[in-house]
Design a protein that fits this description.
alpha/beta, two-stranded antiparallel ribbon, 166 residues, 5 helices
Length: 166
Amino acid sequence: MFTRIVAVDGSGGAGKTTFAARLAETLGGAQVVHTDDFASWENPINWWPRLLKEVLEPLSRNQPGRYHRTNWGEPDHQEPGEVTPAEFVILEGVTASREAFRPFLTYSVWIETPRELRLSRGLERDGEEARAQWEEWITEEEEYVHREKPQERADFVLPGGENLWS
């Protein structure tokens, strides 16, 4: 079996998780691997070698990918993750279509959402006390977007505005 990897990329708060869940359902229950299972507040962008080694490379050899999900501030939390070869696997999250992953991707979607709306969604989810972390995260994401231009390399660009999911 050849696993087709579909990347759903965009900045934090763009609507990636919601879109990926709907896409997974449309694809008959495809597995979703979240980059948030690898990223953390302390390392929002440069965690990618682990995902490459533990998920994408094994799937390319028709083997399951196994990893430990990021604990996001809970040091005693070590939840394992596993993804098995299938017709489709969705890779969802910030930097999901980064250059290092492109050889493994079949298709990529970029969700383009205004910065103010993304920040608003993030603070609604994580609380106002997370504002400083969100501001720092957004700066790092913008550097990724500037450097790799994922929106220009995407197979499909989807506007992630307020009315997208209604």
